[in-house]
Amino acid sequence: MDGIEKITGRIAADTEAEIAAIRAEARRQADEITARYEAQARREAEEIAARGRRSAEERQARLASVAQLDARKLELAAKQEMLAKAYDRAMERLTSLPDGEYVGLLAGLAAKASSTGREEVILSQKDRARYGKQVVTQANERLGDGHLTLSVQT
User: Fold this and answer.
1) pLDDT digit string (tens) for 27-60?
2) Which letter does DSSP use for residue 98 in this model?
3) What is the pTM of this model?
4) Separation in Å, CA 134 to CA 104, 121, 140
């Protein structure tokens, strides 16, 4: 029986060796597959993170652009408010000028705007009736040889 036991023992040892080799090959293949999928998972995770970063950067850029636009709108609104206040104040000062100063101002503006001395001075109906002749007379005196005429704004 010694011979059969040796043969059986050799077969068992060969079988164990083959099983060990198969297990080792299976472990190697499993490790290789695991490594491949882990690498793929890392790549996909990096791509997802990169897309997220790009999306966040784009959103941040859009929000910054909107903030700049809002700031420009606020600045424009403030400028418009200041211009309106300046206009109102100038109008208040003009309407509160004494008649002589008002006529002098209009005559000076007409003379300054004149390039040939033959222009037509256009005033509002109220100013034309009240100050028209005085303005044209003073403007003509300032021009010397020019001759401005008076017209009414309609």
Assistant:
1) 999 999 999 999 999 999 999 999 999 999 999 9
2) -
3) 0.50
4) 9, 12, 10
